[in-house]
Amino acid sequence: GYETEIGEHGEALSAGQRQRIALARALYRDPFLVVLDEPNSNLDMDGEQALIKAMLGVRERGGIVVIVAHRPNVLAAVDFVLAVNQGRIHAFGPKDEVFAKMFPTLRPVPSANPQLRVAAENPPRAVADGTEGGH
Prior knowledge:
Blueprint: H1 15-27, E1 33-37, H2 45-60, E2 64-68, E3 80-85, E4 88-94, H3 95-102, H4 114-120, E5 125-126, E6 132-133
Parallel strand pairs: 1-2
Antiparallel strand pairs: 3-4, 5-6
């Protein structure tokens, strides 16, 4: 609750608890664009599931989530992957295509919500007047 003592800079909290609070702060007021750097670095499985649910919530309301991650579990909630190697773009495209190219023997990472994947495969294009179009 609000009266919980968490200490200076959250020192009484675990790293995972601090990570979840940071996620809550990033999502406060329903931003359109959310950029997360290693959002699952200190999370247990329950925390990762909450993270994926939060990411899907942003997308369901029309927002965009950009993730920088090394741990693959969070990639279940993404549609596109940009792989960077030594500062250069190695591959970019739909998650399944990029992973098939980069890791031919790897099983595909399942989509967290196939309905969202279908909706996001053809993102709206910006037109000259700054509005979205194309669908």
